[in-house]
């Protein structure tokens, strides 16, 4: 059974899944709330399913340096491991 995390967390199940995967509380909350608000619906759930261009744009948005020299798998890892 999924625990209710209060009104601050909009998608409790996703939040718990992300926490079990090792995401920080803040990152899990941001992702869960964005998904619940519909702002992540245009993206695939898996980074590997996204295009290199989309990953590059995400890396640029979050400020990952060296992204222009990265291949798709390196971008996936950089975006996934960004804290």
Automatic annotation (TrEMBL):
<dbReference type="InterPro" id="IPR011112">
    <property type="entry name" value="Rho-like_N"/>
</dbReference>
<feature type="compositionally biased region" description="Basic and acidic residues">
    <location>
        <begin position="8"/>
        <end position="29"/>
    </location>
</feature>
<dbReference type="InterPro" id="IPR055642">
    <property type="entry name" value="DUF7218"/>
</dbReference>
<dbReference type="Pfam" id="PF23855">
    <property type="entry name" value="DUF7218"/>
</dbReference>
<dbReference type="Pfam" id="PF07498">
    <property type="entry name" value="Rho_N"/>
</dbReference>
<dbReference type="InterPro" id="IPR036269">
    <property type="entry name" value="Rho_N_sf"/>
</dbReference>
<feature type="region of interest" description="Disordered">
    <location>
        <begin position="1"/>
        <end position="48"/>
    </location>
</feature>
<protein>
    <submittedName>
        <fullName>Rho termination factor</fullName>
    </submittedName>
</protein>
<feature type="domain" description="Rho termination factor-like N-terminal">
    <location>
        <begin position="53"/>
        <end position="79"/>
    </location>
</feature>
């Amino acid at each position: 059974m999924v625990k209710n995390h209060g009104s601050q967390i909009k998608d409790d199940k996703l939040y718990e899944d992300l926490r079990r995967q090792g995401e920080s509380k803040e990152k899990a909350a941001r992702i869960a709330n964005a998904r619940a608000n519909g702002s992540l619906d245009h993206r695939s759930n898996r980074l590997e399913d996204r295009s290199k261009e989309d990953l590059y744009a995400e890396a640029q948005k979050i400020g990952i340096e060296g992204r222009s020299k990265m291949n798709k798998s390196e971008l996936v890892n950089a975006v996934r491991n960004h804290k």
